[in-house]
Amino acid sequence: MECMKAALDALSAETVSFAVVDVSFSQLVMGGVEGWLRLCDDVHRLVDSNVDSYGGIQIKDRIGRYEFVYAFARASSAIEAMIEIQKAVLKQAVDGFTPALRAAVLTGEVSGEGTLKTESALEEAVGLKDLAHVHQILISLSTRELARLQVGDDVNFKDLGLHRSEVSQTPQRVFQVVADGIPSEFPPIRSMEEPFTNIGHSHNVLVGREKEMFEIAARLRDFKVLTVTGASGVGKSRIVEQIARILLHDYPDGAFRIDLGELTESSFIAESIASELPFIDASGGELVNLLRDQLHGRQLLLILDNCDNLPQAIAQQVNFLFGDIKGAEVLITCREPLGFTNEALFHLQPLDNAHHDGYADSCTLLLQRVREIMPGFVVAPSDQSVFTEICKILRGMPLAIELVASKFRVLKATEILAQIKYLSDGSLSTRSRDLQKLVDRVLEWIYQSLPLAEKKVFRRLAVFSDGWDPAAAELICADPDLLPEQIKHAQTLLVQKGLVRRQRLGVHQHRDSLYQALWQFAHRCLQEAGELTTVKNLHLKWMLGLAAQTDAEIRGPKQSQLITQLNRERHNIRLAIEWTLDAGKNVEAAHKLIRGFQMFWYKRGYFTEGKIWLERLLSSTPYEVSEPRAKCLSILGVFLTACGDEESAVPYFEHALDLATKIRNEDLRATVSGNLGICYRGLGRLDSAVAAFQNTISYFQQTRKDGMLATALSNLGGLFIELKRYDEARATLVEALQLNLQLGNEWAVIMVRFNIAQLELEQDSFEAAEPLLNSALTNWYGQQDLRGVAMSLKSLAVLSNRLGQDDRAAVLLGAASSVRSQIHQTLSRIEVPAHEALVQKLTKSLGEAPFFRKWGEGSGLSAEAAVAYAIGSSSVVEAT
Fold first, then answer.
1. Is 368 helix (H, G, I), strand (E, B) or coil?
2. Residue 325 pLDDT > 80, yes or no?
3. How deeply is 740 buried, as exposed, middle or buried, from its count of CB atoms within 10 A (0-12, 13-18, 19+)?
4. What does 614-669 look like in DSSP terms, one character per residue?
5. How far is CA 537 from the centre of its chain?
6. Which of 319, 322, 325 is nearest to 338 (CA)?
7. Contact assessment for residue 310 and residue 260, using Cβ atoms and an 8 Å cutoff
8. Under 8 Å CB-to-CB from 501, ≥6 apart: which residues?
């Protein structure tokens, strides 16, 4: 940015501290949007006057109507300026209203060439500000270290711990400025991650739109459910995501975006919503009813994005889920109204619509995007009117402007204007349909001007649903005329031209995707090129490879990384399965995909997803006595059991047993019998469960299938604990442990040791139980097995209670509940009585209010923080 470079040169410092201030519209101002905009202007003048006296310099490219950015040579000057600004604002009521300011300071190093060594420092400062409460000042660790010996004695810094902003890849240590004359007590700050939000960082600054954002936020407060309509490319998704970031602190249960643009199956609407909400327990009944019940009273913001594919089905779900529940507020984006009862609407116009002259915001957006491609670009005075004319022809449509910006790399402004004059022939109005035609014409122009390699790569990437990794793109775009290096280079150029967006996942990792409007255009190009079937089959080949990898590795040491990868590929998995099931196209491949991914769905808590696909597979294939059908029936029974519907699971297991008997597959029969034993255990039919496990064990002992034998022994040992047959439990579990150690089955070893810890707890051997539970907890967290983490936390709560540490027990119990809800898992029927007894015991011991305070502390912890709390000190040592 030219303005940033000028600011750094003027400061002539080794480090620069960025101070970011905004006027939060979380407190909606009396007098509506015009009153708020006047307030922003008044505050801006007040901020400028204070910043000047401390040597601050405006970063003008980042000055908006409500957010202001300044650079300082000294960290202490930036902090002192922010303190004085907060004091001044708190003393000055504007129209009887005290402005709500949020502020942050972050420091970066300057290289010898007068540029930032960390170019993201300014963006990180903005991200840090977004974590702040109104009237709060946050700073980074580097800022505190530079400033603490320079500020006065009346200024202190409160350590708020590690938090991740929407910009930072890893959590950073955050401090609050504490000084006389400004508030010092605030609720805990919200990290931009689960369980508070899933909304990612946008690297592009939102230009203009302050008035629209305020109006949408105000209307949302009035109507609770609001549909934002407008043409593709007008910026609906971007504006509602920005609103969610700004208002995150206003929603105690968080803000979440659910992208419904990739759905082709209405049964996945509720499942898609539930899977993104960490507090939803999706087991024990019909999902849509569970979702409605558990959303009631929740204070959260939901964004249902890109609802164009299934408008009628989504409208029905919205009516049912949000028609009369209290608490949740919902922003919907769709090109046209959905048509549900009492639908409130906000139609988003292009930048600088017909009511404005000059196209100032459009020109600012065009200039910013050109400078991102060509740093240091300056508009010649003779080209100012050309820029305006370009934006006028493009009707202020953000997507069209951003795409045209890429052409400045190869064409002059006057040449671009000459090229695009034909795009609007005078027949196109500002109605949505005409604006869509305009965007399509720009896309067609950009696409046709691409080299052949980039054209081919661009359209083939449309086969992906919600993004792709580089290795997948190489397989999909493989062609005799394209080498892997050419494919990589083409993707990089498409990113630079704004046709592909890139998300950094780490230092050397990234993931690419297409905006919805671009995906629709690219998909149409793929069909017109006659490549759809070929590329779909390549996509299926890639997914089959991923399914085979998942089946082989998900129980091993790579489980955590694999689950993270698979979570990003959920839409691609759905797309591949849908393709195989469409008109029975490839049932054999469908079996492989569903069986390959079933353990991922199970471990991540996507029980409804597994259940839906298995039901689809069974219903779309004719009845046959076969091994694949028997396996599918058994797996469906497992998912029904996990959903808490053991009664429905039993017939599927019995059917699978019958098929296994008919085809004389004793291995499969023994496996199904073991699964049926787990189901019986959940139903409380313990004698039947023991018999089922013993039949399984007997068979695997005879056939020397040690892996399956070890699993069955572990299950039986846990059941013996419930039956208080402790000697039998110990002998059975020790045998299972020895087998798993011999086999090197790490996950199974953890599970058996966890069961042994339960036995030690039952027999009051606390010193033996605790290290086993801590080991299970840390190992399961390392594998990102949240189901195991929740089990360990609950058992440690039991241990703490037995040792008389009821405060600690309540925190751990709340943490276990929170982690369990992240994977949408409920307690099994057999666990419920013991759980309720422990809650009653702690409530009686601590008192109802103190218990729920401690429970709340635990439920507010992330999984990482819960693990750190649980193993931070020894319960046994404290007790003794």
1. helix
2. no
3. buried
4. HHHHHHHS-----HHHHHHHHHHHHHHHHTT-HHHHHHHHHHHHHHHHHTT-HHHH
5. 29
6. 319
7. yes
8. 495, 512, 513, 514, 515
| Residues 188-211: tens digit of each pLDDT | 776 665 557 777 666 566 778 888
Banded model confidence at residue 734, pLDDT cuts 50, 70, 90: very high
pLDDT in tens, 577-610: 989 988 667 888 999 999 999 999 887 777 878 8
Stronger pLDDT, 451 or 377, i.e. the higher one: 451
Could you tell me if residue 339 is left (phi over 0), alpha (psi between -120 and 50 degrees) or otherwise beta? left
* Angle between helix 832-846 and helix 848-859 axes, rounded to 10 deg: 120
Unique residue bearing structure tokens 């975006």: 257
CA-based nearest residue to 5, from 381, 375, 365: 375
Write the Ramachandran bin of 359: left for phi over 0, alpha for psi from -120 to 50, otherwise beta. Answer: left
Helix axis angle for 766-782 and 786-802, nearest 10°, is 160
In contact, 24 and 106? CB cutoff 8 Å: no
Q: What is the model's pTM?
A: 0.76
**Structure confidence by residue, pLDDT tens digits, 673-728:** 999 998 998 888 999 999 999 999 988 888 888 888 888 899 899 899 989 999 99
- The closest alpha carbon to 366, from 430, 435, 417, 431, belongs to 417
252-289: string of b/e by CB count within 10 Å (b at 16+)? ebbbbbbbbbbbebeebbbbbbbbbbbbbbbbeeebbe
How does DSSP classify residue 116?
B
Strands 255-259 and 301-305: parallel
CB-based contact 736:700 (threshold 8 Å): no
